[in-house]
């Protein structure tokens, strides 16, 4: 999987070069930063997402993110192994969701390192979404459930993590055509690929 044109800012905001996608016969997507063969179609035209154009983006200082990563990595590795999910994938979700900020809160109310919505946090027994151990444990269990539902299709599991399982179902078991989700999936895949190479 090649995604060299996709970069992440320290805050986890996605900026992309062109991203191409090709689907296998059973609908599994493969992403690339260039057209590898005629089956690849343009998935995302490279640009900075419009919501971040011309606005100052609040980013944690590089050292703050590095400190968050140092603090959260042992928890990420522990819960990833406990729930049989690739640690690099979990770390990539945390990087893109919160920039390794255990106290991050989105405008929609998602909270913590893995940005759990209140209903998801409650489903997995989270009593304090700011507690990194509870948040990561629940987030990894949720991700594992999505991977199981999608028979190991990581791209669809990530789309469901971002947009909700209902959105994936409404779009025929494909990645919903929401700009945020279309940026999110390749951003996490690229971060996971970078983590696997380190």
Automatic annotation (TrEMBL):
Superkingdom field: Bacteria
Signal peptide: none
CDD domains, A to Z: LT-like (cd00254)
Domain annotation Transglycosylase SLT: ranges: 76-171
Segments of this protein annotated with the region Disordered: 45-68
Family annotation (SUPFAM superfamilies): Lysozyme-like
InterPro entries: Lysozyme-like_dom_sf (IPR023346), Transglycosylase_SLT_dom_1 (IPR008258)
Coiled coil, from the record: none
Gene3D superfamilies xrefs: 1.10.530.10
PANTHER family: MEMBRANE-BOUND LYTIC MUREIN TRANSGLYCOSYLASE C (PTHR37423:SF2), SOLUBLE LYTIC MUREIN TRANSGLYCOSYLASE-RELATED (PTHR37423)
Family: Belongs to the transglycosylase Slt family.
The protein's name in its UniProt record: Lytic transglycosylase domain-containing protein
């Amino acid at each position: 999987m090649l995604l060299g044109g996709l970069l992440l800012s320290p805050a986890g905001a996605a900026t992309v070069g062109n991203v191409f996608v090709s689907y296998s016969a059973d609908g599994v997507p493969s992403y690339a930063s260039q057209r590898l063969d005629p089956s690849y179609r343009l998935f995302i035209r490279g640009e900075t997402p419009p919501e971040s154009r011309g606005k100052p983006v609040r980013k944690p200082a590089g050292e703050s993110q590095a400190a968050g990563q140092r603090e959260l990595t042992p928890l990420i590795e522990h819960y990833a192994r406990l729930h049989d999910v690739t640690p690099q994938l979990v770390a990539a979700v945390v990087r893109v969701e919160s920039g390794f900020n255990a106290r991050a809160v989105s405008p929609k109310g998602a909270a913590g390192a893995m940005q759990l919505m209140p209903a998801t946090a409650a489903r997995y027994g989270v009593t304090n979404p700011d507690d990194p151990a509870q948040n990561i444990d629940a987030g990894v269990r949720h991700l594992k459930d999505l991977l199981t539902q999608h028979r190991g299709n990581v791209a669809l599991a990530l789309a469901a993590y971002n947009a909700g399982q209902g959105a994936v179902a409404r779009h025929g078991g494909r990645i919903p055509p929401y700009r945020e989700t279309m940026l999110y999936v390749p951003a996490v895949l690229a971060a996971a690929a970078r983590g696997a190479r380190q």
